[in-house]
Design brief:
single chain, 79 residues, 14% helix, two-stranded antiparallel sheet, little secondary structure, 2 strands, Protein-Tyrosine Phosphatase, Chain A
Length: 79
């Protein structure tokens, strides 16, 4: 598959609502700039910097993808 948009990634909003009674917010995996820019609908895009802009007090990310092919996990530390 290479560095393409993940399966079913376009089917979901970039950032969900806070899960009631918790401090959890679900969001889809952010994409590297070159992959993110290939998403035609700008409202569906999500990059590490836009995630941190949308959720400024984000304290911890639990990454369930088990890969670094979509984004650089260190990118959020550089902002």
């Amino acid at each position: 598959m290479g560095k393409a948009i993940p399966d079913r990634w376009l089917n979901y909003r970039p950032i969900g609502e806070r899960i009631a009674g918790t401090r959890f917010i679900a969001f889809k995996v952010p994409l590297r700039k070159n992959i993110n820019e290939s998403v035609d609908d700008e409202q569906l895009r999500l990059a590490p910097h836009s995630l941190l802009e949308s959720v400024p007090n984000l304290g911890l990310i639990v990454d369930l993808t088990n890969t670094n092919r979509y984004y650089n996990p260190q990118a959020s530390l550089l902002l």
